[in-house]
Every structure is written in C-alpha cells, then in structure tokens.
Design brief:
Helix content: 25-40%
CATH architecture of the largest domain: 3-Layer(aba) Sandwich
Strand order of the largest sheet: 1-9-8-5-4-2-3
Shape: globular
Radius of gyration: 21 Å
Number of strands: 13
CATH topology of the largest domain: Aspartate Aminotransferase, domain 2
C-alpha cells in the first residue's frame, strides 16, 4: 500500500467547484489585493476563533511580527519562547530588534515548559511567546499567570492550531494577540501564502490594519513606517471556502489520531501527551523513535512517506549562532528533535491507510527488539 505524507490534490478534488466559483468572483470584481473576499474571511475567521478582530495578512510570520510590534517589543527587549518550532517564530522576534530567549520544552507535550520560564526572565523581558506546536495547546494558564504577575505581554503562535481549544476556549484569544498561518499544508491552508492576526484589543487591530498597508492612516496618508503585509484576494476567497469545512476536517484528524494512539499503544515509540481538558487539532501526528533514519527508510520501503518537524532546533541553527547557545543548552528540545517523526495525517486518508501506517511502524520499530513494555507518554525514555 502507498500512503503519501500529504495529499492536497485529494482535498482540492472534494471542493473544486466551490474553489473555482470563489476565484472567479475575485476575477470578476478585480479585487486582487484585500477586497471583499478578504474582508468576508476576516469576519468569518474572527467569529470562528470567538475573537473580536481578525486582520488578514500575507503570512503567519508577518502576523507574529505585527503582534510583537503592537506589544511594544523594541530593540534591546527580550522575548521568551521555545526553540522547538518553525524558524518563523524566532525570525519575527528578531525583526523587531529584540532578543529571543529560549526555554526548554515539557517532556510530555513538546510545548514550552512553564516551570522554566521564571528563571529566564530579566528586566529586559517584554513578552512571552508560546507555540501551540502541532496543533496542541500550550499550558496557557501557567504562562498567563506568570505574564500577569510580571506585567508581560503574551503573544500566541497559533500557526498550527486553527480551531484548537484550551479548557473549552479557542486558542488565539488568551493573549494580547495571536498569529495564524494559512500556508497550504496547514489545517486551514490557502493556495499560496497567507496569515492572520487575531485579537480582542481594538488598538492592536487598528495598528495591524495600518501596518499591513504601509502604515497608511487614510488613502495616501501615512502615520507610520509600515509594511506590505496584505493578503491577496484569491487567498481570501480560498479560505472562505475552506473555513466552512474546517470543523469536519479537524474531526477526521482527531479520529485518525486516536486510531494511531490505539494501534501504537504497545509500540516502542513515544507519543506526545494530550491534556484531557483541551482539544488538539493535530496539524501533525508525531511519534518519537530511536534510530529515526533507519525507521524512515524502512517505512518508505513499505510505501509509507514520513517527514520531520523539526530536525534541528532553532537555537542550534547556524543563523542564530550569535545568540550563544550550544549543544546541551536545551536537552529536552534537542532530544525531541533528534527523535521526532511525523506520520501521515490528513482528512482524506482512509482508515485502512492509517491502520497500515501503524502496523508498518510497529513492525519496523519492533524489528530485532525484545517485547516492548508500556511506557508513560514522554519525549524521552
């Protein structure tokens, strides 16, 4: 059996007529930058997130950048975050001139470990930037308590967590602002680049709307030096179509994630822990395995495609060597990145494909091993 890691063509086939009609509306209106389709999406996504405002942008990285600027993060400030994330999280901090300060992750969830935040704070700390990695909400209660006590802003990186809930409430509404990405492979993906800033703060929303459009206050009058961070009309149109299907697609991801968990219960792999009071939307389903290169190779031989998110943590990337981190600085993060393996997970999979992937992973990881013992969910043995 062949199981691709991801299949956007299958998703398009299921909504092709809706997509074509939406794109045609943009062409008929000639609203190629922002326009009514984007405005319609902003209203719909704000409602979906149970938030007051959504500001549509050209990427999740741009959304993080504007959120940090709205929090008055400036050169010389520090922002506490995780190194177990896509590089854009950290780029946005550096765009402001601030310094990222990395905290290790929780062994069970791979998200920012709130128990380690306090020791990373200094008089220069301006904000905390948690990432809802792989669609799993971070430990927001503890993070928000620390932030409130130390008068720090919280900016949520929700770029992989469209629709996830933390204690019954949508992520993206807990901090000053949140960033979402609509990169094509995301749970809610555009047909190109796209992102959004979500907030309940009127001032932040007004700031972001101005800054995405060259700092414009009114037509051709500019109060600030801004950016060209506008969303294209085509992307707004695509997202309007896809948003109507998102809950159904998320439900399918959750069903298949639970099936993976059941089938891999006795496999010699570690799976991230879920908070029973929260709801992950499983942008990715990852397992932590030893001898990952061999496992990937043998799964490929069995027809199963996999990926790695992310193979090398941000603090050890060459581009960020000037920050002064060395191997061993964040041991849990480094161990997670060395073992993480992303399995196929998307709504267009079949139950038979998920069963096959689980069986293949079980066989590959059990090869030459003694009978496994059940282990507590953890990223590290």
């Amino acid at each position: 059996m062949k199981v691709p890691f991801f299949d956007l063509k299958a998703q398009y086939a299921s909504i092709a007529d809706e997509i074509r009609a939406a794109l045609d509306r943009v062409c008929q209106d000639a609203s190629f930058i922002l326009g009514e389709e984007v405005a319609k999406f902003e209203r719909a996504f704000a409602d979906y997130c149970e938030a007051k405002h959504c500001v549509a942008l050209n990427s999740g990285t741009s959304a993080l950048h504007l959120a940090l600027l709205a929090a008055d993060v400036r050169p010389g400030d520090e922002v506490v975050t995780t190194a177990n994330t896509f590089i854009g999280t950290v780029e946005a901090i550096l765009y402001t001139g601030a310094k990222p300060v990395f905290v290790d992750v929780d062994r069970g969830t791979a998200n920012l470990d709130p128990k380690l935040i306090e020791r990373a704070l200094t008089p220069r700390t301006k904000a905390i930037l948690p990432v809802h990695l792989y669609g799993r909400p971070a430990a927001l209660d503890s993070i928000l308590e620390i932030a409130a006590r130390r008068n720090l802003a919280v900016i949520e990186d929700a770029c992989q967590a469209h629709g996830a809930r933390y204690h019954g409430r949508r992520v993206g509404t807990f901090g000053l602002a949140a960033a979402f990405s609509f990169y094509p492979s995301k749970n809610l993906g555009a047909y190109g680049e796209g992102g959004a800033l979500v907030t309940n703060d009127d001032r932040v929303a007004a700031f972001a709307r101005s800054m995405r459009h060259h700092g414009e206050a009114s037509r051709y009058f500019h109060d600030r030096v801004g950016y060209n961070y506008r969303m294209e009309g085509f992307q707004g149109a695509v997202l309007n179509v896809k948003l109507k299907h998102l809950d159904r697609w998320s439900a399918a991801r959750q069903v298949y994630a639970q099936l993976y968990r059941t089938r891999l219960d006795d496999a010699p792999v570690d799976l991230p822990a879920d908070d029973p009071t929260s709801e992950s939307v499983y942008h990715l389903f990852v397992a932590y395995v030893d001898d990952r290169d061999r496992v990937r190779r043998e799964l490929e031989e069995r027809g199963v495609q996999t990926a790695i998110h992310y193979p090398w943590p941000v603090h050890l990337q060459k581009a960020y060597a000037s920050l002064g981190y060395t191997p061993g600085s964040l041991p849990v993060t480094e161990r997670a990145c060395a073992r993480v393996l992303s399995l196929p997970l998307y709504p267009e999979l079949t139950r038979e494909q998920v069963e096959y992937v689980a069986e293949a992973l079980m066989a590959v990881t059990n090869a030459g091993r003694p009978a496994p013992q059940r282990r507590h969910p953890s990223l590290t043995p």
